[in-house]
Amino acid sequence: MREQLLHLVTVGTTLPRVRIHVVPLSAGAYSVLDGNFLIATPTAGEDIVYLEGPFRGEVLDRPEDVRMAVQIWESIRGEALPHQQSIELISEIAETWT
C-alpha cells in the first residue's frame, strides 16, 4: 500500500496534467460515487470519458454523456480537497504504512 500511495504522490507532483483530489470521509456518502470514470482531453479533438463498470469498460464520446460526466466530476471536486492538500494527505498516510 505504501508504494502505491507514494506512486500517486510521484504522479501527482511530476505530471502537470494529472490532478489528484481526495474526497475526505467527512464528506459522507453521496450518489456520484457509483463507479470509476476518467475524463480525457486529447491534444486534438473533444473530451472523451472512460467509464469503468464491474464487467467491462466503455468509452463515451457523445457530447451529452461527456457533459454529464463533467457535471459529476465538478460535484465530486466540490467535496474534495484541493490537489496540493490531497498530495500532502496521501504522503502522510503513506508514512503510516510499513
Describe the structure.
The protein has 98 residues and is of the alpha+beta class. Helix content is 45%, strand content 14%. It is built from three helices and three strands; from the N terminus they run αβββαα. The protein has helices at 2-14, 63-79, 83-96, and strands spanning 36-40, 48-52, 57-60. A hairpin with a 4-residue loop joins strand 2 and strand 3 (57-60).
In short:
This protein is α+β, with helices and mostly antiparallel strands and 98 residues long.
Largest sheet: 3 strands, antiparallel
Contiguous helical run count: 3
Separation of the first and last Cα atoms: 9 Å
Shape category: globular
Please give the share of residues in helix: 40-55%
Radius of gyration: 15 Å
SSE string, helices as H and strands as E: HEEEHH
Adjacency order of strands in the biggest sheet? 1-2-3
- What structural category do the secondary elements indicate? alpha+beta
Quaternary state reads single chain
Using DSSP, what is the number of strands?
3
Overall pLDDT confidence: 90
Beta-strand content: 5-15%
Describe the secondary-structure layout.
Blueprint: H1 2-14, E1 36-40, E2 48-52, E3 57-60, H2 63-79, H3 83-96
Antiparallel strand pairs: 1-2, 2-3
Helix pairs in contact: 1-3
Provide tags for this entry.
2 domains, 3-stranded antiparallel sheet, 45% helix
